[in-house]
Amino acid sequence: MGYEPRVEIDLAGAGKQVGRVVFPLDEPFQGRSEIALPVCVIANGKGPAVSLWGGNHGDEYEGPTVMGQLARELDPAAVEGRLLILPAINPPALQNRSRTSPIDGKNMNRVWPGDRQGTITERIVAWLADSVLPASDVLMDCHTGGDALELIPMSMSHHTDDAAERARITAAHLSFNAPLCVELRLGANRATAAGCAHERGLLVIGSESGGGHPVSPASLANCYFGIRNTLAHLEMLPAPPAPGRPRHATRFTRKWGHQAEMLSDSDGIFIPFRGLWDEVEEGEPAGQIIPRDQPFEAPRTLHFPASGLIAGRAARSGVAAGDVLYWVVRDAEG
Ligand SMILES: [Zn+2]
């Protein structure tokens, strides 16, 4: 079995090309013997190389939708640099409408940097890590809260102690112009695409364009204008197409440590007390849990583990142990 994918276009070529990156499967899955990632390269002139990724999780649709639109509408002559657009890096999950791959059960954002001899999710990640990241100066990895989480539309950055690098990251996230920017400090074992790219020195703009609801004009606009604004900031494209639109005053926050994510400690029915944009205090009641199989049991009250701003909340009341109930972030300064 050959583990190298078949790349049907020249990723280093000029102009606009559309094609596929095809991974043969060890064994057929639901009648398919290969997995194909759609890919579009738009290249011209001397600007930076930017990779745009969508569909890392298969229940997140803004990235694939917006990247398809960008691939259709961008004129290569107007681009300065190289855009490598991969709108659906996890096709089995997208086709299955699930966060994880139905073939191997893996979460594509927890297996970085992948394994060329591993399962299909690990093999796709190994190709992205070994072939795409080294050819990129910038990574934009576009997510949403999917079916499970409603999120304030946000861009996500990674912490660095280097002041010049921090200024470069901040400028890019200001240009993305989401209502919220959340800075992460990941542990060494948190094997995400953005974390891996950041460690390798790429400029990373992750995004979460809402979630917990169907794709909407507002969630698509957050993703679309975020990408267009950032490409304009990188001087790859002319100024954004709607310069007169209202701009957000991006609030810079941070999310790290276990207390930033409040997880459910049991299966049950979750009754939240607070919502997005609420400011909460540590110890304040956050909601109640009732065991699904014990409806006569009194609800148990949960409390916020930390003070801060609610940036995310469970999008459904049927929760399992370990599900995220809230994201609580703090202002970057403070
Ligand atoms: Zn995601």
Summarize the structure.
It is built from six helices and 19 strands.
Topology of this structure?
Layout (H helix, E strand, L loop, with lengths): L5 E2 L7 E15 L2 E13 L4 E6 L7 H12 L7 E6 L4 H6 L23 H13 L5 E6 L5 E3 L2 E5 L4 H14 L3 E5 L8 H7 L3 E6 L8 H17 L17 E5 L5 E3 L4 E5 L6 E2 L4 E6 L9 E4 L4 E7 L3 E2 L4 E8 L3
Parallel strand pairs: 4-5, 4-6, 6-10, 8-9, 9-11
Antiparallel strand pairs: 1-2, 2-3, 3-5, 7-17, 8-10, 11-19, 12-19, 13-15, 13-18, 14-17, 15-16, 17-19
Helix pairs in contact: 1-6, 4-6
The structure holds zinc ion.
The site of zinc ion has 5 residues, from loops.
N-to-C series of helices and strands: EEEEHEHHEEEHEHEHEEEEEEEEE
Look up the CATH topology of the largest domain. Answer: Aminopeptidase
Note the quaternary state here: single chain
Radius of gyration in whole Å, from Cα? 20 Å
Biggest sheet descriptor:
15 strands, mixed
Hetero groups in this structure are: zinc ion
Question: What is the total tally of β strands?
Answer: 19
Poorly predicted parts: none
Kindly provide the name of the CATH class of the largest domain.
Alpha Beta
Molecular structure report:
- A hairpin with a 7-residue loop joins strand 1 (about 5) and strand 2 (about 15-30).
- The strands form two sheets. The protein has a 15-stranded mixed sheet that branches. Strands 16-15-13-18 form a four-stranded antiparallel sheet, with no helix packed on it.
- It has two domains: about 5-255, Aminopeptidase; about 260-330, OB fold (Dihydrolipoamide Acetyltransferase, E2P) (Beta Barrel).
- It has helices at about 60-75, 90-95, 120-130, 165-175, 195-200, 215-235; strands spanning about 5, 15-30, 30-45, 50-55, 80-85, 140-145, 150, 155-160, 180-185, 205-210, 250-255, 260-265, 270, 280, 285-290, 300-305, 310-315, 320, 325-330.
- Helix 1 (about 60-75) crosses helix 6.
- The protein is globular and about 65 Å long.
- The longest helix has 17 residues, at about 215-235.
- With about 325 residues, the chain is an alpha+beta fold.
- The protein binds zinc ion.
